[in-house]
Protein 1
Amino acid sequence: MARQKAATKKSASKKQNSAKPQKAAPRAVRKQPKPPFPEQGISPPGEEAKMDPRPRYEAPAYRAAAKLQGMVALVTGGDSGIGRSAAVLFAREGAYVALVHLPEEQKDADETLRAIGAEGTEGISIPGDVSDPKFCKKAVEKTLKKFGRLDILVNNAAYQQHRESVEEVDIEQWDRTFKTNIYGYFYMVKAALPHLPEGGAIINTSSITGLEGNKSLIDYSSTKGAINAFTKSLAQSLAERRIRVNAVAPGPVWTPLNPAERSPEEMQEFGAGTPYGRPAEPEEVAPAFVFFASAADSHYVTGQVLGVLGGETTAG
Ligand code: NAD
């Protein structure tokens, strides 16, 4: 009898053991490229297809859970970089995606469309300039015409040009940076808002420069600071309608934005000053956009600026 009991106990404990994880899941960790980076040889606005190493947007460790099933997202600057990776993860979560981008970036947009298709949904590319309010209206109309609804707006397009001093920032540059980075966000919100349902989301791409400032990016940093205040103010104003408004503020990210306008010498050590000692890859930033897009994840979260900063803790 005692022997039988012991045997039962033994087989029960064996069963328990087999339910335990056999080994640690390795998929969350993929080794990412770090400085020094080679010369990229690209110019503004920056073709991602020409970069080496290629920015990583595929997020192989990211498993979908149908969080955005049947929803529609519009992502400005969705052809490349952070916007591309967010668009691909949205598609993995079941969303259809409209990509707004500069006409010069059609090749990058085509690659993103293929990647969206490979996730099992569909995308459209809408080339144009977000600093033109008429275009922003048209972009929303085209999205509605194609997909019939709009649930998520990602304001992510940006213009950036480093200058050594404020004297070097001319009025034309100041205007272009503001017209793209903050006027463009406002125009897109005006165009999209009448169509966003309860539970919809607006996500604005900010930057560490909007929290800390940057002496070589005075105009750009100022727009990013404005984006943070815009995010919080809009969140307050739309809380009753249950439309969440949040921002993602990355540190350095390996995308065409910086190598397109900075010297190879500067780019060689890009991201080396972060506690991680390297820039983020777009695939490491994109899940923050899914978090804010998905009501299942962030229903009670609005008006937040989420830093994705590789260990930097003083910003904000
Ligand atoms: P990116 O060059 O891949 O994306 C920028 C996109 O903006 C381009 O695809 C371009 O088509 C689009 N764009 C620019 N001007 C436009 C206009 N007038 N109309 C329509 N589209 C326009 O670079 P990225 O780094 O992925 O940038 C995405 C966002 O991330 C930006 O808001 C940027 O400020 C922010 N950001 C980037 C970094 C970084 O280090 N790369 C760091 C912090 C924040």
Protein 2
Amino acid sequence: MEALVVIDVQNDFCPGGLLAVPEGDQVVPVINKLAQQFEHVILTQDWHPAGHLSFASSHAGKAPFDVIDVDYGKQVLWPDHCLQASHGAAFHAALNIPHAELIIRKGFRKGIDSYSAFFENDHQTATGLAGYLRERGITTLFMAGLALDFCVCWSAVDGQQLGFDVTVIENATRGINTNGSMDAAYELMHGAGVHLTTADDLRTTRQ
Ligand code: VGL
Ligand code: ZN
């Protein structure tokens, strides 16, 4: 059984948001159409408390996009974004997937960031998504959303490493691209055996 996993299509990752991904809002119509092809759809939502470790504002003398060392490795620092229950953390108003079955929130622990839908950035603290999918008998995942070089990539790589068959729908994503992060993401996904496709190819093969 398969599911579409829609990563972080939230106001703060769209133009005008606090951590805007260039053209981030352009994924919305593509994803709305894609979602109609899937019986099972899961959404993720970046959901940070004030003073989150990943915010540059939490570290004296640091600026957004600086990289620091934390307990679990390197951490890119971001502008404050996706504050719990804020407008910026809400899904884009045009995202239209009424049949979505689950919303996974992540990044809600103050001291640890969480890009992946499966694990927080220590690669150990589970979100529960793998267990949910396994209990439901879902083995094949298609992924879309924001941002390709962070949350989509890390979710895809973790999913593949956990034994799911993961395909990223490239034109249903957009990237941030900081410090070579797009190239690094493609390398990571390639190395993990993540498949890539486009919404059009998917439509053709599923007809
Ligand atoms: C994301 C940076 C920080 C993402 C979330 O959704 O890709 N990126 N928090
Ligand atoms: Zn975040």
Protein 3
Amino acid sequence: MILIKDVYVNGKRQDILIEGNKIKKIGEVKKDEVEDVEIIDGKKKIAIPGLINTHTHIPMTLFRGVADDLPLMEWLNNYIWPMEAKLNEKIVYWGTLLGCIEMIKSGTTTFNDMYFYLEGIAKAVDESGMRAVLAYGMIDLFDEERREKELKNAEKYIKYINELNNSRIIPALGPHAPYTCSKELLMKVNELAKKYNVMIHIHMNETLDEIKTVKEKTGMEPFVYLNSFGFFDNVNVIAAHCVHLTDEEIRIIKEKNINISHNPISNLKLASGISPIPKLLKEGINVTLGTDGCGSNNNLNLFEEIKITAILHKGVTLDPTVIKAETAFNFATKNGAKALNIKAGEIKEGYLADIVLINMDKPFLYPKENIMSHLVYAFNGFVDDVIIDGKIVMREGKILAVDEEKVYEKAEEMYEILRS
Ligand code: NI
């Protein structure tokens, strides 16, 4: 059992009792109510639900800074894809550990990933103590042979992750995007998602160029095209980016209950555009936040995404009320949990114990009155303690489960291999 004493949570000072991987009680907990308990003094701290990053490619931490200030296609074709060709399970493992350390330190407890060499990713996630939804990224480039290979891999990884039997690691399907995946592949993905009861994670409408490609090929916008063959029917989908959308596409997103992963920093950095989030909110669509990979962000600090989301759309719409602080914060917590179908994202009795503590003794968190405002507009993202699935994974800024120094050393070593 873990008892967080006298912490500021859900608007007041109280105790949080954790038993197993769940929050057992919030309120006053007397010492004689508990046995075998580890006590965390919460007096100077606030507790928030762990943040949920709904779109990323974690091993790309190793691509941080290798190619900035380029258009998406040039960035992918000339830099990212050639480096990705050199990857292997070992490189991916160390890149993922580096990403897990970064996420834990910045208050993220769950991430939704699409990448390759999932054995390496799953191993690192397991060791770090994080929670993750992992999908193998499928790209067939309309080639039948490649399609069969990709589908086989995807199915193999669902089985592999299921067999790990670790409740923190959840399998998913990751067809890359409508401009890199054939209709046949996408139709099969819908079938597999239903067969294995897993969600689908896909890039949608990231750039005008790619939308043009799909339109020229099919005569339809990407969401209309995918909807025309039932891709969204009876499955849970997270669509990343969704920068450029027609009204018809927004209608489909609403009707099919598609979750949006808003990635404002990646979209700004690659000059892809700005997603019409206020419009989606008006329709009651579930908006979540993602960082995307470190090649295009260049970090995994979801607090930056929260702040940018809260201010960006004010500037675009010239309306300061359009996304309030708490709304942006909910994107990264409650809404993310809803999209990934996990009982987290809120600090509530019976919910998963994914809890982040922040020491309030930081100059930018004074005066202490308006905490939600500070979290969204003032905080730098460096948190103090992190509990995931009822286990302490970071205590007073120190990562417990993995050797940080060794990960940094290995990250440099792996980077040398990638750029050689
Ligand atoms: Ni992406």
Protein 4
Amino acid sequence: MSTIIAPSILSADFAHLADEIKRVTDAGAEYIHIDVMDGTFVPEITIGAAVVRSLRKFSSAVFDVHLMVEHPETQIKSFADAGADIITFHVEATRHPHRVIQQIHECGCKAGVALNPGTSLSMIEELLEDVEMALVMTVNPGYGGQKFIESQLGKIHMLYHMIDEMETECDIEVDGGINSKTSVLVREAGANILVAGSAIYGAENIAKAIKDIRGKEIRHRHEDYDED
Ligand code: DX5
Ligand code: ZN
């Protein structure tokens, strides 16, 4: 399974966002992870749809929008119209997660559902067949540069097997504290989309940081069986 790297522009220089995006896509990143915070679901306020619309003109990379907002249903259309490719919302932030997924699809985007470190996998089990991506937070959302929470590795592993048994197509993204060391752990557990903010934008050599986080290709057991 090949790994996709999604640099989080939360750690970029906000005065030069278009250039900061170009820097990481030139260095091999496939996705651009855009952290949207509303000051309520998480304490800070970051990027709105207007910024995404402006950035869209400067990049053809996949825009991976991570909504850390209450009532995500009110924001889907704006971000889709602004040029998001994937819209991920938190299952903790809405009473009607399935409806939010339908809304995202109706707007022509791929849908992702995220869960906080303290949230059980059972909260998203019924949604897995309908989303293109599940996002396991490996820090509590709200800030870049936090320490990776190791207890989430078991959750990623369980999610990987759940998806495998359901025989559904669903990417596993991880977000928070990902660097060249923790990336090995999450990839072995089954994650295939890796978000990294400080480990990429804080690096002296961005291309090397991306390469190190991507690591060597990992073969999971069922992939071997498929080819036998
Ligand atoms: C945290 C955000 C992350 C953050 C990751 O709430 O969702 O995307 O930017 O930053 P690092 O990689 O520095 O932990
Ligand atoms: Zn994020």
